[in-house]
Specification:
Helix content: 55-70%
Largest sheet: 2 strands, antiparallel
Strand order of the largest sheet: 1-2
Number of strands: 2
Number of domains: 1
Strand content: under 5%
Mean pLDDT: 81
Number of helices: 8
Low-confidence stretches: 154-189
Length: 222
Amino acid sequence: MAAMDMPLLPMWLRTVWIVGLCAVVVVHVGHLVALSGQHRAWHAGHTVMATGMALMYLLPRMQHPELYRAGLVLFALVALAQAVTTVALRAREGAVNPLWLLSTVDMLAMVYMLLPPATRPDWLNWVFVVYLACQAVAYGLGTWDRLPVFTSRAPTSVAAGAATAAPEHTRDHEHTVTPLTAEPAPDPAAGPVVGLVAHSSLGVRVTLAVMAASMAYMLAVM
């Protein structure tokens, strides 16, 4: 990142972003402490991401090159861990969780920002800017909350012994006859297909939108 007096990133604007990102950290740390399992890991990732962004706004690359090199290694490892988590959960849950996938892409954007400026092509800069701007809008509007993977219900399991012992009942449709056991009815008490579900709370959505916007703006002015 350039010097502290960048025309498009004056000190007052840096301060605004830093304060906003510190608020993001506080919110996600609160959820990290209160929750468990996938939710805790997901909030931990966003806590690290928001902390990294706050430090990038506070400490320019020119004055702190070692910090940026260390950050590059750290976020590359976190991005790798999240990619492995996304694939492993896909195998276990039978569906790709968009939250883990998007979090991995966001972490890759952090890795990209920490690369030496000479290695970052302008066109890829703007690809990430557009992506992160769309992320900010999507998070703010709660778009991801409404994805089918978060609203679908796991079907009720049918015991194998009962299925083989009991005769197969059928139900008549207008054009065909379908076995009742072909498509088990969803269990209203069952949980979503994936273990990590989207937050519907406005506070969390705002923090995610702020973080995505801060990343998009930094990439745009770098």
